[in-house]
């Protein structure tokens, strides 16, 4: 219920729902994390920092907890604290890829140290080569540095056409550039080679919807839901939209 309220922008209701969820199940870490994010969205900084610190105290070996606190400090424009908590996330949980992404993004924004930022992104991709967003972050840095990453990824896909990561990378940068037809082709190839690539189904579903290919969109959302926890409000909303649209089709 909290997720549904958050998706609709009803932050006060989301806070109340997450509080209720924690009262019922005080060991639910995701409720702690989501309550912290809701407090941040509400502008309740004190409670956001408190709940996120409590999450760290309860689960001190999970990097995501530190990264969520880093995100809150970043929202407060406290980059020093954000960097410190991303670094702690990496220290306690070296396999948590998102921490490298967050740290690289801040360091590049603050210092324009492209070499260090790309090293951190490379580490994240070594941990998870299906992380679509990381390829897009990579593209932003490379473009500002005058490097033709799109051309490099096109060459990579040509040289390694059976490697899922080649098409994931290419689809990610095409999507960032708004090249719809090429994005669809790349992600269709990616999910064929890597059927568990959940981001690919999400991007395809959104693109199919935009093109009013509702049958294909519904199928892609179905694949995505099969790889995600049921009950994610955003996904349910999109699936509902597709079902309504498709109901009117002959």
Q: Could you walk me through the main structural features you see in this protein, from its secondary elements to its overall organization?
A:
This protein has 250 residues and is an all-alpha fold. It has 15 helices and no strands. The longest helix has 15 residues.
SSE layout and pairing:
Blueprint: H1 2-8, H2 11-24, H3 29-42, H4 45-58, H5 63-75, H6 79-92, H7 97-111, H8 114-127, H9 132-144, H10 149-159, H11 164-177, H12 180-193, H13 198-210, H14 214-226, H15 233-247
Task: Summarize the structure in short.
The protein has 250 residues and is an all-alpha fold.
Q: Outline the low-pLDDT stretches.
A: none
Per DSSP, what share of the residues sits in E-state strands of 2 or more residues? under 5%
How many helices?
15
- The helix content is over 70%
- Shape descriptor: globular
Oligomer: single chain
The largest pleated sheet is described as: none
Q: So what's the CATH class of one domain? A: Mainly Alpha
Write a concise keyword list for the protein shown above.
0% strand; globular; mainly alpha; Serine Threonine Protein Phosphatase 5, Tetratricopeptide repeat; 15 helices; 250 residues
């Amino acid at each position: 219920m909290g997720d549904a309220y958050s998706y609709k922008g009803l932050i006060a209701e989301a806070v109340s729902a997450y509080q209720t969820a924690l009262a019922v199940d005080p060991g639910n870490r995701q409720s702690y994390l989501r309550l912290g994010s809701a407090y941040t969205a509400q502008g309740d900084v004190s409670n956001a920092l408190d709940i996120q610190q409590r999450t760290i105290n309860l689960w001190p070996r999970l990097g995501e907890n530190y990264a969520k606190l880093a995100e809150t400090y970043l929202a407060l424009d406290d980059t020093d604290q954000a960097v410190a908590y991303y670094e702690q996330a990496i220290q306690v949980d070296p396999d948590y890829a998102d921490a490298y992404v967050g740290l690289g993004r801040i360091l590049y924004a603050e210092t324009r140290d492209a070499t260090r930022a790309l090293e951190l992104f490379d580490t994240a991709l070594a941990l998870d080569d299906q992380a679509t967003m990381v390829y897009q972050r990579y593209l932003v840095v490379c473009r500002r540095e005058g490097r033709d990453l799109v051309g490099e990824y096109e060459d990579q896909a040509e040289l390694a056409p059976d490697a899922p990561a080649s098409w994931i990378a290419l689809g990610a940068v095409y999507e960032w550039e708004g090249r719809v037809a090429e994005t669809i082709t790349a992600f269709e190839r990616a999910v064929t080679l890597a059927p568990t690539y959940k981001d690919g189904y999400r991007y395809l579903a959104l693109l199919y919807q935009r093109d009013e290919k509702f049958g294909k969109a519904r199928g892609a959302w179905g694949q995505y839901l099969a790889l995600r926890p049921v009950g994610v409000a955003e996904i349910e909303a999109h699936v509902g939209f597709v079902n309504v649209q498709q109901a009117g089709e002959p």
